[in-house]
Design a protein that fits this description.
- This protein is an alpha+beta fold.
- The strands form two sheets. The chain has a two-stranded antiparallel sheet. A two-stranded antiparallel sheet has the order 2-3.
- Strand 2 and strand 3 form a beta hairpin.
- The termini are close together.
- The mean pLDDT is 84.
């Protein structure tokens, strides 16, 4: 899985705001707020291919999470990102 190109991530007053040139204004409402962990992953992944193990390892390394919790969180993020349409195969 990969993230779509041209995703923009900014820190706003209510959390992180995720957008991009190919997203319509109405989509921004669905994308706010993002957790610090999700924002970190999106920033670090960029255009690289990833899976749940990759994300879990990143969460463990950056936030000191237990691997099983990190893996559960990674799957939640991936499903959410697919639901909101910011991933591509």
């Amino acid at each position: 899985m990969r993230l779509k190109k041209d995703i923009e991530l900014e820190k706003g007053p209510d959390g992180y705001i995720l957008g991009g040139s190919d997203m319509e204004a109405s989509e921004y409402d669905m994308l706010i707020p993002l957790s610090d962990e999700a924002a970190f992953l999106i920033r670090e992944i960029g255009q690289e291919e990833f899976d749940e193990d990759t994300l879990a390892e990143m969460l463990c390394s950056e936030f000191g999470m237990d691997y099983s919790r990190a893996l559960d969180d990674a799957l939640v993020y991936m499903n959410h990102w697919q639901d909101i349409g910011i991933t591509r195969e």
